[in-house]
From TrEMBL:
<protein>
    <submittedName>
        <fullName>Nitrate/sulfonate/bicarbonate ABC transporter ATP-binding protein</fullName>
    </submittedName>
</protein>
<dbReference type="InterPro" id="IPR003593">
    <property type="entry name" value="AAA+_ATPase"/>
</dbReference>
<dbReference type="InterPro" id="IPR018632">
    <property type="entry name" value="AAA-associated_dom_C"/>
</dbReference>
<dbReference type="InterPro" id="IPR027417">
    <property type="entry name" value="P-loop_NTPase"/>
</dbReference>
<dbReference type="InterPro" id="IPR003439">
    <property type="entry name" value="ABC_transporter-like_ATP-bd"/>
</dbReference>
<dbReference type="GO" id="GO:0005524">
    <property type="term" value="F:ATP binding"/>
</dbReference>
<dbReference type="InterPro" id="IPR050166">
    <property type="entry name" value="ABC_transporter_ATP-bind"/>
</dbReference>
<keyword id="KW-0813">Transport</keyword>
<dbReference type="Pfam" id="PF00005">
    <property type="entry name" value="ABC_tran"/>
</dbReference>
<dbReference type="InterPro" id="IPR017871">
    <property type="entry name" value="ABC_transporter-like_CS"/>
</dbReference>
<dbReference type="Pfam" id="PF09821">
    <property type="entry name" value="AAA_assoc_C"/>
</dbReference>
<keyword id="KW-0547">Nucleotide-binding</keyword>
<keyword id="KW-0067">ATP-binding</keyword>
<feature type="domain" description="ABC transporter">
    <location>
        <begin position="6"/>
        <end position="236"/>
    </location>
</feature>
Length: 424
């Protein structure tokens, strides 16, 4: 049996009363790479930080080798997306920092730091400062700084997403060959990512997180030999499956009949982007493979998914089996003249987008005028301040396009369009 290193049991986390993680249970074992895959806001970073012991759970427990955490997890080290290096320290000093904090004496500290620098391909850069290095080299320092601690579990929070495509691919491959060659001074890896292909390239198991609040949707084993071939049919089938899991409905978490604006936030997309997606699906015969159009458009999943979510929310497309299919309304929306298309959009937004529906109903009851600040106050109960403002901005964009209501920033007034049908 594999060594159990970390167990997370029924962990929930709320910030200011707002739930972000809901009863997460998982185990990290020696010898495996686990990917936590989810879209933006599904609580991946929060979960990773909870595993690292950097933030305490609101409920539930995290254990390292059976011992419940009481502060930082002694069996982990973290690699951050933003590198998080000390700019005033050289590469060598940055790598030594964690060992110094552990009280390792100067001589062994230096020896271990030099060995980690060597392992990760930073030889010759010992006395450079972070600002002299490229992004890829800075992240190598990030890896060396974590690996020098020889943690049982290496935690990585989107470590490649700030790098250009080629640098990221190169660094990923090097890490995988170190892992395969058993030169990695750690027993397990847990990586947070929103990139499906990255998850399939690296992981032995992919844990798919859903949002609002973050919960485990599925666990998908990746039983492929390394190095993995992106072009193999089994690789593509797994990517399709994960796309489906990230975009499809969750049968065991039924939507409330009338979802509230906080339970179903508006995806952050403009009407232009949304119309563009629907047009592409129509131009390709009304049905497309999601991974294909993501690749064709050179989109990251995080760029594409909000568009897919918005089009699904508005009933313009449906997602099944990794495919995106145009609905009847979606077809009319994209082929009708502009006025008809706006009318269709207005009806769909009013009936299916919870915040737009809420604003329309409130305007109908208030003789067509309301202060936007009223909605902002209500939204702040369910969202962080910046997210609340973003929700209102999206609703205004959609409402304006559908000629349902307008917003005057000078008076902070939302005003119903006199010709709009605000209630179905
Ligand atoms: N310290 C905090 N205080 C308040 N809210 C927070 C805090 N940290 C995270 N959140 C909120 O928790 C939610 C989940 O955030 P988290 O960063 O864990 O998600 P994520 O899946 O990693 O997203 P991303 O890919 O965008 O980083 C977000 O709504 C975020 O605003």
């Amino acid at each position: 049996m594999q060594d159990s290193l970390i167990t997370v049991e029924k962990v929930s986390k709320s910030f200011d009363g707002r739930p972000v993680l809901d009863e997460i249970t998982l185990e990290l074992k020696a010898g495996e790479i686990v990917a936590l895959l989810g879209r933006s806001g599904s609580g991946k970073s929060t979960l990773l930080r909870t595993i690292a012991g950097l933030i305490p759970p609101t409920h539930g427990t995290v254990r390292y080798r059976g011992q419940e955490l009481n502060g930082a997890n002694p069996g982990t080290a973290m690699v951050f997306q933003s590198f998080a290096l000390m700019p005033w320290l050289t590469v060598l000093d940055n790598v030594e920092l964690g060992l110094a904090a552990q009280g390792v004496p100067a001589k062994p500290r230096r020896e271990r730091a030099l060995a980690a620098i060597d392992l990760i391909g930073l030889d010759g850069f010992e006395s450079a400062y972070p600002k002299e290095l490229s992004g890829g080299m800075r992240q190598r320092v990030g890896f060396a700084r974590a690996l020098v601690l020889e943690p049982d579990v290496l935690l990585m929070d989107e470590p490649f997403s700030a790098l250009d495509v080629l640098t990221a691919e190169n660094l990923r491959n090097e890490l995988m060959s170190l892992w395969a060659g058993q030169k990695f001074p750690t027993k397990a890896v847990c990586i947070v990512t929103h990139n499906i292909e990255e998850a399939v390239l690296l992981a032995d198991r992919v844990i798919v997180l859903g949002a609002n609040p973050g919960h485990i949707r599925a666990e998908v084993p990746v039983d492929l030999d390394r190095p993995r071939d992106r072009k193999s049919p089994t690789f593509a089938a797994l990517v399709d499956k994960l796309y489906d899991l990230l975009t499809g409905r969750e049968p065991d978490r039924p939507e409330p009949a009338e979802a509230t604006p906080t339970a179903r936030p508006l995806p952050a997309v403009s009407v232009g982007g949304l119309a563009g997606l629907v047009e592409i699906v129509h131009a390709r015969g009304g049905r497309v493979d999601l991974p294909d159009i993501a690749a064709d458009l050179n989109f990251e999943i995080d760029d594409l998914l909000p568009l897919v979510d918005a089009a699904t929310m508005l009933g313009l497309v449906e997602v099944t089996g990794g495919d995106l299919a145009l609905t009847g309304v979606g077809k009319d929306f994209t082929t009708a003249d502009i006025q008809r298309s706006k009318e269709l959009f207005a009806a769909q937004a009013r009936d299916r987008a919870p915040l737009v529906r809420t604003i329309c109903r409130a305007l109908a009851r208030a003789d067509g005028h309301l202060r936007a600040g009223f909605f902002l106050d209500v939204l702040r109960r369910g969202f962080a301040a910046a997210d609340a403002q973003q929700q209102l901005d999206i609703a205004v964009d959609w409402g304006r396009y559908g000629e349902l209501f307008d917003y005057d920033a000078g008076t902070d007034q939302l005003t119903a369009d006199p010709a709009a049908k605000l209630v179905a």
